[in-house]
Design a protein that fits this description.
By secondary structure, the chain is mainly beta. Helix content is 6%, strand content 55%. The strands form six sheets. The protein has a 34-stranded mixed β-sheet that branches. A hairpin with a 5-residue loop joins β44 and β45. The two termini are 58 Å apart.
Length: 928
């Protein structure tokens, strides 16, 4: 076991101790002159609804929190400001949202991506549907949440805290709500880009209902909620393989392209229930339950053109010409156009396209249960126990099916003309009719996968599944001080948790029986899908998943080593103990509040998996395992100095950690044994017969020492505020992939005896870190403080500037995934006499984003800057028969902002270019 309480941690703890001593000394001097009212910082809350009510509630919660936080509160029951939690989070200072398939899903806080952020539900850590720890927020219906708190600075009692920040999703508390309420809403939505694929929809519906009540003289409270969504979303997509220097004069040329259109439908049913029991002022028990069924179906149809990287197939002579045994490689014709070292227009002959009819589905279920009980034994002592359970079951289908003019060397070839438009996306011309079912057959046009399926695979089925389970027990005691010292109370407790995540990697090659090039069966044939946005016209379309499920294809399990080693299991047992002193004190004549604390974390992590080598029938594997234990001490301080009425200076310092990605912690790896290098001259780091790549179950977490300072001024009866904040995160360590010496003892080497058992593996490792720093400015202002005629108008604005330098072990600077150097948000609103309107814009500069790559694997790509604009108008009836009812009209992605990625820092080298259209929603809400 490794105990990590290094010099910096000692200094931080020592600094905290010094502050503690100072508080004690000044407390004695000030106790008689400045007694404190325990309720001095209490903010009286008035029950209001709507945009302004939501803003006021969020500002009040931000002001009274002892940490530096951002807060979102619902406009009313079932009415968070946006249709997606992630969209709402992306408008907060220092936060950004990454769009995937047009929907906001992944959150970055202060430049650090989802890997460094944790999500809680009612204060309890949650499992995740992804391969890692990052929560996909569209799993949680916004209609069932009362608010969200984002902790930018931690304190000792915050369990499951993230290095970047902690997002705590909150459901309503019926006893605190204090009255009966029934709320329902329904919204119809439509995408203006239309249904791009045959057999899909461009309209959907979402609805929810909530019920809150109190019984038995307000000693029992219940809150029940249900939310359903059927939401279609579309995209026109272009994807480039890459840009080799294969054009005239070594210019950049397209290696290959894959344009397609996607039509998707997200279905989700969410259930929430809370029961509270508070028979007296000393006992309070709460049971929370949340369940979500989530299904996402994506239909993708298009065509893949190998170009500069296409190559030939078969027995070809010189010059290459098509024969029954030769398919010549694509050839760039004379007369092409090159501008600034980039091939921008030309004609390519001998092109053989692969028509794609693909389907991606994801089915996942989330269960989250919690039971919290608080007992105030005396006026000074209280005790809390919390039990929680969270589980995810997820299964994906990633299906590819291919068709073309013939198998491998057979079939007609095409001649493509192309020119790059203003977005560096090609527009094509072609000769063949890719929608003709007599010309286009189910086959393997390029002969890919011929080592497994003779003549080439006709499709591929990737069917991974994940189980993620987390159990936790938390016990806490709180003692209220009644003396005249600087501390108002002390909290101490323990949290014991165990998490196990399992990834099962099932993959299959698909083959047409007998290796034929088959006509698409009429029962599965659909009208052609149009790719006219790139000049390609129609492509053949069919029900690919139905064809597979009918048994049309032969399925052959992929026996290769990379699939076998793709299976893994990771277990974490984490014991946390903490103590926190809460401060309520006079520093001179100024009120000082906050806390000082220490958190101990003991972790036992382990992983099981497989080490595999080879391909096909020659694949060999063995079970492997690994893990480690470690300890960390995490001191933290939060100070809030009230320098004037409604003016606060905040300072925070803490030592934080982020546990490594769970897929990086897998024990599984690929390996190889090269007999040629099995000589007496072999060394572990040079010419070893052994090599490999994979995960590393011995990884330590990323450690950072973080410092924050914030100035906040509240005005207009806390209807507005202005703040400026700065932060610095000193990353002691950072995880990156590098070559390491590994002991392969016991690994199979055939009948050969290895001369050495060490070799090099490429795997994640802990290296030197760096820093990330930034400054944030935020303003929330009702315009009536400027002039009474502007009553009802207001704005919220923020801008953040972030920089970082991460150079693991002296290597070249590493870009942090999720970091945009500049982030800005602006919302202008109007609300009066039942009318409300709002328009919002969020901007982020270029960043390194995580997207799906080859084989649905994780790929990091540079994402271009984007501005996303949303708008809404509504009216709430104030009296009469319709009192309690409101209508709403929303437009998401008003300007149809594209999503674009590029490579090598060159925005001309576009890898992805996707447009999603605008989504219109019209709805009715009612509350009784």
């Amino acid at each position: 076991m490794r105990n990590r309480f290094n010099t910096r941690a000692h200094l931080m703890a020592g600094g905290a101790a010094s502050v503690l001593a100072m508080l004690v000394i000044t407390g004695g001097a000030q106790a008689q002159a400045a007694p404190q009212d325990d309720d001095a910082t209490h903010v009286e809350e008035v029950i209001v609804t709507g945009i302004r009510g939501s803003i006021a509630s969020s500002i009040a919660a931000k002001a009274r929190n002892t940490s530096i936080v951002e807060v979102i509160t619902a406009e009313d029951i079932g009415k968070l400001p946006d249709v997606s939690i992630a969209e709402s989070l992306g408008r907060l200072p220092g936060l950004t949202v990454q769009r995937l398939d047009g929907r906001g899903q992944l959150i970055s806080i202060r430049g650090l991506g989802p890997d460094f952020t944790t999500a809680l539900l009612n204060g309890r850590e949650q499992v995740t549907t992804g391969d890692n720890r990052g929560v996909e927020f569209d799993q949680y219906p916004s209609e069932l949440l009362s608010g969200v708190t984002i902790y930018k600075t931690p304190d000792a009692q915050l369990i499951g805290q993230g290095l970047a920040g902690t997002v705590d999703l909150q459901t309503i508390r019926p006893l605190a709500y204090g009255r009966r309420a029934i709320a329902a809403n329904v919204r119809y939505e439509q995408n203006d880009i239309g249904a791009l694929n045959s057999g899909t929809e461009d309209s959907g519906v979402r609805y929810s209902v909530s019920y809150i009540d109190q019984f038995a003289d307000d000693t029992i409270g219940i809150a029940l909620g249900y939310a359903h969504i059927t939401s279609p979303y579309q995209s026109e997509r272009y994807n480039a393989w890459g840009y080799p220097n294969a054009g005239p004069g070594g210019s950049f040329a397209l290696g290959g392209v894959k344009p397609y259109v996607m039509s998707s439908e997200l279905e989700r049913d969410g259930f929430m229930g809370t029961v509270e029991f508070r028979p007296n002022d000393r006992f309070h028990s709460t049971i929370d339950a949340f369940y979500s069924e989530f299904r996402n179906t994506q239909i993708l149809r298009g065509i893949e053109f190998p170009l500069a990287w296409g190559g030939s197939s078969g027995a070809c002579g010189t010059p290459q010409v098509q024969t029954p045994t030769c398919r010549p490689g694509p050839t760039l014709q004379a007369g092409s156009t090159v501008a600034n070292g980039f091939l921008t227009a030309g004609t390519v002959s001998n092109v053989k396209g692969v028509i794609r009819n693909d389907v991606n589905t994801r089915d996942s279920n989330i269960t989250s249960l919690g039971w919290n009980t608080v007992f105030d034994a005396t006026d000074d002592w209280s005790f809390m126990a919390d039990l929680s359970y969270s589980k995810v079951e997820r299964e994906d289908v990633v299906l590819e099916t291919y068709s073309g003019t013939g198998r491998d060397v057979a079939g007609a070839l095409d001649t493509l003309g192309f020119r790059l438009d203003e977005n560096n996306v090609p527009v094509f011309s072609h000769n063949l009719n890719y929608a003709d079912p007599n010309l286009i057959r189910l086959t393997s046009p390029q002969g890919w996968g011929g080592d497994i399926i003779p003549g080439g695979q006709d499709g591929y089925l990737n069917n991974p599944s994940i189980d993620d389970e987390l159990k936790a027990v938390r016990l806490e005691a709180r003692h209220q001080f009644n003396g005249e010292g600087p501390f108002s109370s002390i909290k101490f407790g323990v949290n014991i948790s165990e998490r196990e995540k399992t990834f099962v990697n099932d993959q299959f090659f698909l083959g047409v029986p007998g290796g034929a090039s088959a006509v698409v069966p009429t029962a599965f044939l659909l009208p052609a899908t149009q790719l006219t946005y790139l000049g390609l016209g129609g492509v053949i379309s069919y029900d690919a998943l139905g064809l597979v499920n009918s048994g049309f294809y032969n399925r052959v399990r992929n026996p290769n080593a990379d699939v076998r080693s793709g299976n893994w299991e990771v277990t974490e047992k984490v014991n946390t103990a903490y103590v926190q002193l809460n401060i309520d004190h006079m520093l001179g004549s100024l009120p000082l509040t906050g806390n000082i604390g220490l958190q101990y974390i003991g972790t036992d992590q382990s992983s099981n998996g497989f080490a595999a080598s080879g391909s096909g029938a020659s694949t060999v594997s063995r079970a492997v395992s690994g893990g480690r234990e470690y300890e960390e001490f995490l001191p933290s301080t939060n100070f809030i100095l009230q320098v004037q009425e409604d003016m606060f200076l905040r300072f925070a310092a803490a030592r934080t950690l982020a546990r490594t990605r769970m897929d990086d912690m897998r024990a599984s790896r690929n390996f190889s044994f090269n007999v040629t290098n099995n000589t007496p001259a072999a060394r572990p780091d040079l010419n070893s017969p052994w090599s490999g790549s994979g995960g590393n179950p011995d990884l330590m977490p990323t450690i950072a020492n973080v410092y924050d300072i914030s100035f906040e001024k509240y005005f207009a009866d806390r209807q507005g505020y202005v703040s400026i904040a700065g932060f610095y995160k000193d990353l002691e360590t950072f995880v990156f992939t590098r070559n390491q010496i590994f002991d392969f003892s016991g690994y199979p080497s055939g009948s050969v005896v290895p001369v050495i058992n060490q070799g090099v593996v490429s795997a994640p490792d802990n290296g030197e870190g760096g820093y990330i720093s930034g400054i944030e400015f935020a303003l929330s202002m009702p315009f009536d403080i400027v002039h009474p005629a502007l009553e009802g108008f207001g704005m919220q604005a923020s801008v953040s500037q972030t920089s970082s330098e991460i150079k693991p072990d002296g290597q070249a600077a590493t870009a942090l995934p999720g970091l945009s150097e500049t982030v800005a948000n602006l919302t202008v609103y109007y609300e009066a006499n039942g009318f409300q309107a709002r328009i919002s814009n969020r901007y982020r500069s270029d960043f390194l984003g995580e997207v799906a790559g080859f084989g649905n694997g994780r790929t990091l790509r540079s994402v271009a800057a984007e501005n996303v604009v949303d708008a809404q108008v509504g009216y709430e009836f104030q009296s009469g028969m319709l009192e309690g009812a409101s209508v709403l009209f929303q437009v998401n992605n008003l300007t149809d902002e594209p999503f674009q990625t590029f490579q090598n820092g060159d925005e001309r080298q576009v890898i992805d270019y996707q447009t999603y259209g605008r989504t219109f929603l019209i709805g009715v809400n009612y509350k009784y």
